[in-house]
Fold:
Amino acid sequence: MNPSNPPQAAEYGGDEVSAIVLDPGYSTTRAGFAGEDAPKSLIPTYYGKYNADGQEKIVYGDDVFVTPRPGLSVYNPLNKDGIVEDWDMAEKVWEHSFMSRLTGTKAGNPFQNGLNDDGTQEPPEEMEVESDEKPLSDSPLLMTEPGWNPAKAREKTIEIAMEKWDTPAFYLARTGVLASFASGKASALVIDIGASNISVTPIHDGMILKRGVQHSPLGGDYISSQISALFKANSPQPITITPHYLISSKTAVEAGQAPQAKYKTFPADKAPDASYRALLEERTLAEFKECVVQVWPGPTRLSAPGPNGIPNEDMARTYPGRPFEFPDGYNQVFGVDRFRVVESLFDAKAAVPDPESSFPPPTPAQTIPELVKASLAGVDVDLRPHLLANVVVTGGSSLLYGFTERLNHELMQMFPGPRVRVTAAGNTSERRFGSWIGGSILASLGTFHQMWISKKEYEEHGPNIVEKRCK
Amino acid sequence: MGPKRNSRKSSERVRTPRKTAPQTPQLPSRGTTMPPFKDEHILLIAPGSQMTLAQLGLPETFTPAQFRFPTRMFPAEKKGEFEPYRVNEKRHEVKISSGPTAPKADVEMKDAEASATEAAVKPEGETETTESTEQTTKTVEEIVYEEDVASDEGAIYPIQNGRIVDWPCFFALLTHVYNTLSPPFHTPVMLIGQPVWSSRDRETIAQFVFEKFKAPAFSLMDSALAACYGYGTSTATVVDVGKGKVDVTAVTDFAVNEHGRGIALEGCGGDAMTDRLVELLGHKGFTREMCEQLKRSNIVEILPPGTPLPGAAATARQGANPAAAASTGGPDANDSAPRGPGDGTQTGTESNNDDEEEGVLDVAAIVSGNTTEYLANIEKEKTTNKKGAVDPKAARLPNSKKEKASFQYEGFVQLEDEKATASGPRQYVRHTRDIEVSVERFLLTSPRSNTGDRLTGGILEDIATQIHHTILAVPDATKRSELWDSLIIVGCGSKVKGFTQALLGVITQKFILSPSGTIFTSEIPSTFTTPLPTGGTNTPAPMGQPGPMYHPAAHGVNPLLVAATHNNPGMPGMPGAMPGTPGMDPNMASHYRSTGHSQTPTSTKTLKLPEYFPDFKDQGNSNAPGASAGNAGATPGASQSGHGSEEAVFLGAQMAAKVFFVVDQGLSKGYMSRVDYNESGPSAIHEYIL
Structure:
């Protein structure tokens, strides 16, 4: 090619549009383009609200973690079950999740002037869009929902997608089904350890077996409450978490010594409220879970005696502890306690008691082994061995150190006959975003195109179509 | 930098579900139909909120950008079109001028003009300035358009806080940049993208570049990644301090971590520092423009947290200085700014003009012979001058110990002579004078008293909090420690002296873990077993044996040991597999490594810019206009904290362009070719976004 010859005009004719996959969870909302291997946008489902200059302002996204604001309080549009409660705000939060990083915040036609200002070329037809463009006018949308989402909520979801966002095509898929797709299985028993819930979902040939869906509230937030209970009962003194935003500087202290930090004070009318502090404390607790907390590996429970007669607790005591430093500089080594805080996921009696906790003490039926048992009891006997051979573990809280190993032991003890095989993605992001990734795969399949509910179909049949089409 | 990229890309693509099949056969054909790109035919554009850097061709050794365009355009007469300079419409029925109002000192333009090359390229018509209007005054009833290069009145800034707010204007700017550099056809384009740009924005830009510039290849590179290329590192935390915002990005193995990324954090950029100065000095009559120049001068410094401000002792010494006495202001009719000695007053301290003269050696004298003698003479004169003028003790005092110092303010002053009013256009003269500032100059990052709706502890604390959040959000926990230890601080906002040190100080105060807790007191050495290389994978861990969950790295015993064991390929840990099942997924190992980590940060430091590109070092000193002028009371030449350059992004862009366009010719999918574009459309740009 001669650099002095002008190239021919562009001949791009296709209109390949990637679908957007939106996976709204209780603690985070994930959004990204189908076909990519991780959601591009990850925002907290929590949003902040405060008043400034006499106006109510709302903060979305990570900013809530970084910038304290006067009188800031934090809310979650979902209830503890992972079902939407505040539809207006859920819509806003979800909208933010794809507008901030994917579709852009400003609707409108950017092509009107810049591209065509040489006057020789007519604007391409397909770029002509009306100016009151809604956020998703040109992207199909695949959304996820928990297996126990009520019909009302499903209809409301498609209503928002079609009417508020104007998406040309929509589909609603269950998180469990998608997580099994993400691990390459059409049939699986999906154990999802989320923030607000743990759930067990049996999937057969890509279809959810509704009667087998089980969930309980012993998720990441419950583990946090257990850790808080542990801190309260800590000796020699109870530990209080002071989040970073309240500390201006800290000084190194010896382990177990009282913290020496300079604290920040906000005037009473400006201080962020307790819900904000709780959210920020949760950040520290999440770090604690990553660095310290460990699941007793089994094969027997922490409270039981081990194979050689020594109680497991005594065994655990001999393991070196793990240090953790709190934002105010207080640091301590955590020994056997770091096993205790998660033991109640498997053994309800082992829960750390805390009468002030917002979580009632767990019942045996809420533990993971019992959920699996109940779930399998709800499905056909012939399917059970196949499901047990395809146990898929997903969800952020399943990243607890040693979790899958313990789960494996528990399942093998409970079901000695059939072959139990637990699969868990090794990669942190694949584990956390299992259902999003499944959605990404599904929506980019060529064969999936016939599954979409088109705008026309929606207009013809109304929101109830979601019940018929997304089973 | 090159080979590593390759491996990452290929491994990443394997997992991408998107069908990549159609692209593969093109690779060879691209090589055959398209001649390789040449160094001199590569167009680099790095748009910023304030300044857009551009360059055509890669020089032998990489230099700072050849062209600097202010990121702004002016609305043209026809709606929707834009001009690069302000156009004044003049009607000449009356002879009264409707000339420009007071032009603000336009630092951007000065920069642009200072660039020797640009002057040559500038279209002839555009050099016409206000002075030339005198001929046109004779014609009556005629509308005359003239371009006013000095004015920024009515300018539209298409990028605000990194975000493109006015697309037509942004595209007009790109076109202006493109036309100014006028590359030959078949010039590949590399654009440095702001982190805040959404996927849709990027598609739009790709479409524009391919359809308007007809580029044969286009690469859209993230600015944070470009900074990593500039520093020659694959993993770093990039802090980009811009005009109105700060971006904090964790890059691991040449991949940008989108989750938890601090994007366009507002109220933390250079403007926030100026705002603080205005707040501190406003009541003393300082205008915003003065504060802006003060910020750019080198008497301004951010002291590390806990450093006492220079106090009474320094004042006493300073008091003996004639400059301090003189600095209460000479008669100055046009400006009521305080503390400034009048025009032409010599202000003493080291703001002596011989600092400037030092730089201007008489080259002729050197060339004509006796170089050493000449230089020695100059040196001698200098020292004698200094001795004569200033108390040597005070002179040697570093800036941070002085209570007061002055800087040279450059402003435009309107000439109100009779002859000026007669001729029509008003005339301005550049007017410099020295202004003395007290300790306020150390306080520009202190929290503002009116924080608006942010409860901020000062911009450094906000940035530190964002860094903490960003690094904590990196999923691969083993990388976090490295990320804390490889901070890259770029962007013009970071040019303020002491910025980096102060930021590191704040991080240390707030986040660094005490060694006592994590290393020395916590562990009993006897329980600390040797790491098992592959232990526990194939057998169920029996009681008491340090099994899978027992990796020493988890205890934060000793960072070195942690680092060593983390590189151990055969980590224990076997989620899910039946005991006895051989063959462990390496991913699983990596997962187990990542949970069994210890808390971070135990230390933090910045990376050093590689020294192969001396030009990028210099840039740091010469770019601040205030710094090159009267450097009162500062250690000479130390306007930069000495750790590299705020424009490493552009250096990285050049390196990346060299690698992608020239060295590997598209093998690493560093750019999108025209063929790809024609086949898959703009949305395919995401496959190539770096």
Q: What stands out?
A: Residues 10-15, 107-131 of chain A have pLDDT under 50 and may be disordered. Residues 220-359 of chain A form a domain with the Actin; Chain A, domain 4 fold (CATH 3.90.640.10). Chain A has three domains: 14-102+132-177+434-471, 184-218+362-424, 220-359.
